[in-house]
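in:
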């Protein structure tokens, strides 16, 4: 009797200790828990081995999942990077925060981000960003003491985002953690590697040679392992909450979609979600249907705080404790094809484990029996119910919405009538089966194939295919930009301008169309026309520093130096760490023969982006002008080392080395310049290079 009673008392005491530990370490009132948020771009849940062992091997993430809480059915609201991260960091839907695509939007300062929320509670805050879609210009830097976005200014592969490898992202995060020891911290780590193009470094490229996407994931896991090991070695693991998720998945051919941002099937919106807080939440798998908007309120409750009133998601702490939670209704959308092309908008609802997709050709799926969405059951009573529910859900969660900044008034009126805010393409009022994304999939795939042909150096095939795309869909703004880019790569800038003029004749009035049209006019030596076109772009989206930068270049080429300086200053007010603008300021002051100031701007550009070939070239020009030719030659060679296709550095080297009497080397660079420029070379420059070759 005595032993049984003592045993019961001991069990009770252990239970009380466990409850006490939970309450003191994160259930209520805890103010000492660090927070690490990890977002892995373009990661399908079923390609982590803790979800499915059939693809990548991810032992470091698996180790956390085996000790933490893994949600088997978590969803993104949008299969795009910027909107998804805005939902994660604000706890709201796109219907509320107003960000629907990667371009043309910036998060409003009226939103309270997770960083602002935690900073106000004494946290040191830092973000380490892997790629351009989360650049600070888009508004998510709010509340961060450090927003580290040191990816290259340009991707050497056209049509792909500038990015930096996971190793460099983790290096930067570890350096900050080491320098901020003893502080309570919130760190957001964003790694971009699984995003296309798939090019994992050795040994993952050979280990996964038949599945490079999984190779990228395995490489990313290895780099994250360094972060997890640091937390353990420094004794931080026990008082740190780690949240792992992705912004969206990847089509990989499912439903005909190779990448993402087009459809909204589970291949691109089913995402991983793992909470790891050792000693607080025991390991379990949770089957409840949850979504991105739940992360912020969950973090808030774990640290003992009430989330901001804007938050629309719910705390998942009951599920973390082991309590059964009901599935929630989950709104999702894919509006990029509508916003950039005028094709039918896609919106939908997941409820009671059924999914409804609202398009001209409507779809519905029973996710319990058909999670891969192979059998459309639209027309059943349940699908009709969800169809009726969708407008109610949209109305409910768009109330009190925050307008994303940078939206034009005319397009605002048009898009408000459809239930969301954007501002680029004027689409139809009503959409038919011809506008359905499924109907238009062959055109979308042909467009992507043309880009792939271009990347493989098959320019003529790429041009032919993209011209066919435009014949079938002459209202496709991106296709005009792409085709013009192909012609420029071929050295035919005249034909590139014809493409833009045809788009203008067809009534294309989209922001990126005007932006690249204006840039092409500048490159063609017609800066006055470029200024007019770029002003049209800025009238649509006035907060993009890239358009202001291009306008500055056009003013500079037109000899309007004061206007160029003002345009560059406007660009820097929107993006203070924009390396290309500092490079262009260097060129501006070089033109004005103010060499010391020019050199300072070029050096500032290199401090921000050491890979920027144009800045090395410009700095070399400064040293040449100041009579320091040896230093200039060294910098021009550095420019070509960073970018072997940077023709202007080859031209400068040919001229300088000829002056130095190094004719053999000068001829080498003259040949390189002629090869790189092709038909774009001016008659005077061609004659000068040929003279060097004759010598």
């Amino acid at each position: 009797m005595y032993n049984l009673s003592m045993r019961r008392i001991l069990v009770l005491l252990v239970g009380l200790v466990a409850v006490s530990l939970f309450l003191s370490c994160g259930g209520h009132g805890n103010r000492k828990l660090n927070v690490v948020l990890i977002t892995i771009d373009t990661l399908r849940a079923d390609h982590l081995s803790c979800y499915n062992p059939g693809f990548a091997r991810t032992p470091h993430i698996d180790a956390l999942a085996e000790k933490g809480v893994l949600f088997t059915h978590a969803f993104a609201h949008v299969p795009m990077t910027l909107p998804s991260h805005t939902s994660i960091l604000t706890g709201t839907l796109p219907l509320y925060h107003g960000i629907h695509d990667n371009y043309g939007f910036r998060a409003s300062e009226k939103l309270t981000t997770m960083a602002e929320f935690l900073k106000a509670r004494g946290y040191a805050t830092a973000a380490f960003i892997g790629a351009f879609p989360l650049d600070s210009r888009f508004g998510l830097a709010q509340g961060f003491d450090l927003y580290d976005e040191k990816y290259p200014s340009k991707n050497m592969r056209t049509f792909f985002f500038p990015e930096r490898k996971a190793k460099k992202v983790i290096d930067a995060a570890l350096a900050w953690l080491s320098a901020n020891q003893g502080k309570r911290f919130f760190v957001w780590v964003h790694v971009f590697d699984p995003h296309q193009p798939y090019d994992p470094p050795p040994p993952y490229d050979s280990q996964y040679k038949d599945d490079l996407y999984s190779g990228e994931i395995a490489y990313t896991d290895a780099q994250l392992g360094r972060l997890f090991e640091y937390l353990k070695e420094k004794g931080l693991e026990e008082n740190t909450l780690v949240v792992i998720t992705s912004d969206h998945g990847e089509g990989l051919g499912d439903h005909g979609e190779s990448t993402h941002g087009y459809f909204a099937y589970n291949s691109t919106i089913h995402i991983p979600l793992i909470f790891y807080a050792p000693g607080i939440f025991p390991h379990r798998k949770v089957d409840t249907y949850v979504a991105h908007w739940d992360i912020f309120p969950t973090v808030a409750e774990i640290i003992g705080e009430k989330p901001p009133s804007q938050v629309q998601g719910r705390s998942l702490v009951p599920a973390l404790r082991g309590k059964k939670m009901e599935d929630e209704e989950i709104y999702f959308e894919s509006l990029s094809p509508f916003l950039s092309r005028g094709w039918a908008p896609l919106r939908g609802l997941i409820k009671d484990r059924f999914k409804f997709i609202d398009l001209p050709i409507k779809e519905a799926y029973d996710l319990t029996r058909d999670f891969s969405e192979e059998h459309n059951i639209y027309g059943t009573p349940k699908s009709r119910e969800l169809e009726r529910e969708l407008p109610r859900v949209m109305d409910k969660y768009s109330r009190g919405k925050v307008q994303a900044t940078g939206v034009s008034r005319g397009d605002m009126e048009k898009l408000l009538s459809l239930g969301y805010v954007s501002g680029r393409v004027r689409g139809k009022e009503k959409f038919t089966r011809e506008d359905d994304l499924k109907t238009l999939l062959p055109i979308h795939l042909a467009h992507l194939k043309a880009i792939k042909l271009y990347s493989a150096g098959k320019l003529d095939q790429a041009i032919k295919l993209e011209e066919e795309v435009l014949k079938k869909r002459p209202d496709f703004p991106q296709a005009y930009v792409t085709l013009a880019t192909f012609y420029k790569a071929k050295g035919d800038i005249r034909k590139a301008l014809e493409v833009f003029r045809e788009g203008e004749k067809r009534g294309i009035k989209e922001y990126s169309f005007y932006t690249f049209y204006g840039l092409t006019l500048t490159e063609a030596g017609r800066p006055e026309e470029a200024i007019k076109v770029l002003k049209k772009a800025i009238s649509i989206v006035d907060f993009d520093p890239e358009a202001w930068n291009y306008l500055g270049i056009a003013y500079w080429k037109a000899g309007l130096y004061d206007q160029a300086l003002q345009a560059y200053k406007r660009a820097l007010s929107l993006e203070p760490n924009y390396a290309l603008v500092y490079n262009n300021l260097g060129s501006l002051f070089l033109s004005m023969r103010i060499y010391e100031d020019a050199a300072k701007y070029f050096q500032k550009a290199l401090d921000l982006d050491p890979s920027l070939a144009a800045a090395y070239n410009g700095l070399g020009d400064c040293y040449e002008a100041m009579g320091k030719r040896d230093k200039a030659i060294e910098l021009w060679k550095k420019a070509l080392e960073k970018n072997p296709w940077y023709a202007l550095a080859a031209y400068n080297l040919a001229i300088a080395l000829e002056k130095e009497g190094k004719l053999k080397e000068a001829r080498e660079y003259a040949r390189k310049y002629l090869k790189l420029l092709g038909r774009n070379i001016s008659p005077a420059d061609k004659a000068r290079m040929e003279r060097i070759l004759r010598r």
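note: Residues 1-30 form one domain.
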